[in-house]
Amino acid sequence: xxxxxxxxxxxxxxxxxxxxxxxxxxxxxxxxxxxxxxxxxxxxxxxxxxxxxxxxxxxxxxxxxxxxxxxxxxxxxxxxxxxxxxxxxxxxxxxxxxxxxxxxxxxxxxxxxxxxxxxxxxxxxxxxxxxxxxxxxxxxxxxxxxxxxxxxxxxxxxxxxxxxxxxxxxxxxxxxxxxxxxxxxxxxxxxxxxxxxxxxxxxxxxx
Length: 207
What we know:
Layout: E1 34-36, H1 42-53, E2 58-59, E3 71-72, E4 74-78, H2 85-103, E5 107-110, E6 114-120, E7 125-129, E8 139-146, E9 153-155, E10 158-161, E11 165-167, E12 175-179, E13 183-186, E14 189-203
Antiparallel strand pairs: 1-12, 2-4, 3-7, 4-6, 5-14, 6-14, 7-13, 8-12, 8-14, 9-14, 10-11, 10-13
């Protein structure tokens, strides 16, 4: 006679609860752009243009030669020692305020000076691009300041592409800033000359 097998009732093992396949995230509250009217007065803009024109301007280049034909302008660099300390202070105060309101990035400050940029008709332009680049300073915010009287030129609109094209007003002395990963362009200047100041604010790496 065969003995009966003893049945051992093991406790049922519950399957571990799994989280949703999507990673948890926080909503992105970073704005795509912000502006400040009248950072510089018309007289201050004229003074910056005068200082910029005293520099030896060179043909603007791009970091990747494959895109060399996407930019046509002349540039020079203005530093605080070029009688520009007052301008740096104004821009610093404005960017600090805009960052606190709209971006809340961890910033260090200027690392590359103020780029004085000159676009001349009939072909001055800068095709669509972003300012964030590999193996360089961590650019967090880009800014541009309109120096020219808008009646002095035609075309040359600064356009941001954030899913829709946003054409920036041409008010003299106006500062526009945006995260350096935002796609943007300067459309061809068809008449006259467009002057601007461009800068990038560095900070901790994006996470």
